[in-house]
Amino acid sequence: MSRFAAGQPDLFAPAAAPEPASPPGRPPLEELAEILARLRATEHLPWPTLNAAMAAEQHFLGLARMAGAEGKVLAAAIMDETERLFAADEQAAARACAPVGS
């Protein structure tokens, strides 16, 4: 009977070399600039749910961390545009819920 289950590595075997990190598909600054341009060109939130908006926010904040100081500037502009779009959608929802005679 084997002491190791199938696929279980030997604890005393030499450590395998770590796999090199795969390069990102596009430079973070390029992706951040594209996100900002898309948000500036729209009048409504591009995300269907709040969860999707939060996931997008985490994505561009991660890109900003990778891009350094310039990325942080772009991320701040993206946050400003996102707030503008949230406010516009909230106003539109309030108008839709307003009484008809007002």
What class do helices, strands and sheet pairing give? Answer: mainly alpha
> Fraction of residues in helices?
55-70%
**What is the number of strand segments?**
0
Number of helices: 3
Strand count, sense and barrel status of the largest sheet are: none
Quaternary structure classification? single chain
Explain the overall architecture.
The chain is mainly α. It has a domain at 28-95. The chain is 59% helix and 0% strand. The chain has helices spanning 28-40, 50-67, 69-97. The N and C termini lie far apart (82 Å). Residues 1-5 have low confidence and may be disordered.
Briefly characterize the structure.
The chain contains three helices and no strands.
Task: Describe the protein's topology.
Blueprint: H1 28-40, H2 50-67, H3 69-97
Helix pairs in contact: 1-2, 1-3, 2-3
Q: What keywords describe this structure?
A:
mainly alpha; about 100 residues; about 60% helix
